[in-house]
Write the structure tokens for this entry.
Amino acid sequence: MTGYIKIHKAEGTWTVRAGGAVLGESTAALELTEGDLAPTIYFPREDIAMAFLDASDYRTQCPHKGEASYFDIVVKSGTIGNAAWSYEAPLPGAERIKDHIAFYSDLVMVERI
């Protein structure tokens, strides 16, 4: 499993938007690469407007990162179900993403500005 997960600081300033609202902006985001999958940006929780996120009951299990907890995003235009996730207790090798949140880029806009 060593080397399958790679985590490093995401260069620049990253933002996440949904339904016309800015959910967060960060210069401390992390980029996680898992095998051959496209990189995922993880935002520090303190850089996210958590008032827009409601914890959902949905969970998934990753053999490399552990159990993911999901969030619905609630904006003026409606609710985007299970659009964000985090690992509250990541497995060894993925510890750096603890206290970070990632977003499905096909449901919200995640971009480097």
Summary: The mean pLDDT is 95. The first strand starts at residue 5 and ends at 9. Residues 53 and 73 are 5 Å apart (CA to CA). The domain at 5-112 is CATH 2.170.150.40 (Metal Binding Protein, Guanine Nucleotide Exchange Factor; Chain A).
